[in-house]
Amino acid sequence: MADLALNLALARPPDPGEQLRDEPGPDTEHCLRLYAKLASGVTVVTTQGGTGPTGMTVSSLTSLSARPPLLLACLRNGSHTLSAIGGQGVFAVNLLRDNQRSRAARFADPAVSPSERFREIPLRPVLGAPVFGDALGWSVCLVEDIRRYGDHSAVVGRVAVVQVASGRPLLWHDRRFGSLSGAGEGVPR
């Protein structure tokens, strides 16, 4: 019987996923150093949790499609925010202003409780998701898809409501916050 199992195993074509897992590649630290060089805007993704609002700082956010309007956010697996988004089916993306660094740090700190994160922030509910009244811009999205990839999950949201204000964005680059400078809003410093 063991010979039959061995012969069947040898007759099977190799699993491409198995080959990819065996591929040599850079270690996590090398990848993180590369990722740190990617400049991005800083956002706080929020939703309504079981005991109140919940949210986390996210720098991996991008537009996915204009028609239909889709955003893609990458959230750490195991986070309360990701779990709540899956349960609620709706989330808000709050684009932070360059003077909101302390807010970004507070929402990034896993030791800070959800109630402490939202303290003294002007909130308003839009389609059931908590939105920052003082954000540079925000959107409320309906969940289209959530897929796990490695230690994060890609959350695709269909933009249902959007608002944009004037000002300068908070940026994340090389593991620290930054901002734009110069006469125009698009001139990096």
Write up this protein.
Helices cover 24% and strands 40% of the residues. The protein has 6 helices and 12 strands. It has helices spanning 2-11, 16-21, 28-36, 80-88, 101-108, 114-117, and strands at residues 40-41, 43-49, 52-58, 61-65, 70-76, 90-95, 123-126, 129-132, 137-149, 152-164, 170-173, 176-179. The strands form 3 sheets. Strands 3-2-6-9-10-5-4 form a 7-stranded antiparallel beta sheet. Mean pLDDT is 86; it is low at 4-10 and 14-21.
Would you report the number of β strands? 12
- Cα radius of gyration in angstroms: 20 Å
Number of helices: 6
In round numbers, the mean pLDDT is: 86
Low-confidence spans: 4-10, 14-21
Strand count, sense and barrel status of the largest sheet are:
7 strands, antiparallel
How much helix is in the residues? 10-25%
SSE sequence, one letter per element: HHHEEEEEHEHHEEEEEE
What would the principal axes of the Cα set say about the shape?
globular
What structural category characterises the helix and strand content? Answer: alpha+beta
- The percentage of residues in β strands lies in 35-45%
What's the N-to-C terminus distance?
A: 70 Å
Spatial strand sequence of the major β-sheet: 3-2-6-9-10-5-4
Question: Can you describe this structure in just a few lines?
Answer:
By secondary structure, the protein is an alpha+beta fold. Helix content is 24%, strand content 40%.
